[in-house]
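TICKET #2291
ISSUE: user wants both folds in one file
ATTACHMENT 1:
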Amino acid sequence: MSFQRQIAGGIVLDATYYLNRSNFAWDLNRDLNMVDPRIGFQNKGLTNVQVANPFYNILTPSKFPGQLRNQRTVSNSSLMKPYPQYGAINVTEGQPGGNSNYQSIQFKAQKNFSKGYSMLFGYNYHLQTDQRFFNNIDQYVQQYTDIASDASRHRMTGAATWEVPFGRGRKYMSSSNLFMEALMGGWNLTPTGFWRSGRLVRFGGLAVNGDPHVDHADQTHWFNKAAFAVLPAFTARTNPWQYDDIRGPQQFNMDISLVKSFHIYEQLRFELRADVFNMMNNITWNNPDTSVTSANFGRSANNDQLTQTYGRRTQLGLRLQF
């Protein structure tokens, strides 16, 4: 649902509410031969005790294939499967549910090219929830939980084109000689950029004691590491996947292009361009390490730059249009 209005200067304002619902998007695979994990939480190490394998050398390999018939002993837990003579029995994309709900509010201001310039600015705020299995108990009983997406909540983008107003056909120096036209005329400047807020930091199963939040997060200290510890064996996960106030690094990027056009004659044009990517030479770090046993727990390791991001890069190009 969109509402648009044109205001002074030919600028069009746009406000949009966007809603999308997707079915069968998450956690659709199911192991039909899964052991109830609550048995392990209750009986702990007893589930790993090795016992005689009732399927050892049973029948013939043609009638009972697989490695299980060659093992003298197996764990108690392997015999607790609904079909202990088999391993995992996976149904792919056969579990109903796993829905995803996306909602966003979007604002846009756009001016089409006139008077030597154009511009576009956009802002997007979104909320998304996905039906996921919170832990392995939920996976066993096939119970979904609506969990917020870890994606950035805010994003702003902008782009503009400016005809530098010097040279033939432009506001200033429109009758310049060939030398001045070659030097000053025909330049176009095009900046583009975007900013997004940090992504939510997701944690595995951990023991949590205290407030994980820190007031001034940075590359070496994204959250309170002392609040986390290794989850004891045979213990159900209870900590949330993520915390609303623990987010990774933001990202800001600006690219700029400077283009010079030479009109040789009406149907032939020569173009010289310089493109600078990540003009501000910003570094965007990856989300922090959330493995509590890692030396980099709670921090973005040195040189751990976000995938597909780079330092400042410049390219020069020549193009002949005819």
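ATTACHMENT 2:
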Amino acid sequence: MIPYGRQWIDEEDIAAVVAALRSDWLTTGPKVAEFEEAFARAVGAREAVAVNSGTAALHAAVHAAGIGPGDEVIVPALTFAATANCVVFQGAIPVFADVDPERLLLRPEEVEARRTARTRAVIAVDYAGHPADYDALRELCRRHRLSLIADGCHALGGIYKGRPVGALADLTAFSFHPVKHITTGEGGMVATDDPELARRMRVFRNHGITSDHRERERRGSWFYEMVELGWNYRITDLQCALGLSQLKKLTRFLERRREIAARYDRFFKTLEGIRPLAVSGDVAHAYHLYVVRLETSLGGRDRDRLFSALRAEGIGVNVHYLPVHLHPFYRRRFHTGEGMCPIAEEAARRILSLPIHPGMSEDEVDAVCEAVGRLGAAG
């Protein structure tokens, strides 16, 4: 099976983790701050706060933005469930907005239409690795005094009008799951230019306690206080050692993803009935996913048939995603359902994610194209 995504681990990565294992610190040690500083530089932010998953990063960002019970946060319908779940964790209400039909990104006009007096923030998702429309979203949020949070978990290395993802919103969450651009096994990061937001997230990731063990060790003190209800979202030095090693290879990983995407782009210009999502001319796409859409009248039935046929031939296609408001939890809890976000719902019946990751060989890319061409044409 050619997977849709996969980590790339080399001997340098393994050596970095082994060195951390042999050090005095396995967690809350010096590698955490080192990784945070290197990552902040890489994404053009003043601060970065490391946590143990992309979901934790989203939750920490929403907490830092001051979201609480009764608040509303506007999120796109077509995303992974964690984008909305982090709002629910805070006792707030996710308000689902539709996406644009060409790129499947949050539509600023939808945000304006769904905003109420209780809206406190907007979470934009850089779907598949394509940055959202940050100029329009920032202006809207500035005008209405809303926090702008970026779910950049697909978009590490993406560029919007010359600026990197990580320097475009008040807070930007990233994921280091194995299928992402770099991995720490599991892990996440939040980038921000606001030192106070960074401080709040560092307390939040450590049970709401104002200092961690290494800080107390440095001061020669045992004393600590819990000042708010926090979570154990700490990340280990082992993970951060791996993250530092992986970060050095980010440029190479991105180049390979873009090479594969360009190969797919050329192929789909020759194929009827299936086309990739559009890419704006003012962005550099990060290509966490390469998403195509079936244009046939049967929509979902054709997509599911092609999905099964490709999987049977060892092509590890996937679907990203079932719109969040159609999941059973959200239907029960918030009385959501079909018809709320028709563009996202229709897209979800037709989209397919093709394999794309740095470890793919040219033969594997060719195999994907050949199978999609043959089985797609067969209908």
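RESOLUTION: both attachments delivered.
EXTRA DETAIL ON ATTACHMENT 2: The two ends are 22 Å apart (CA to CA).
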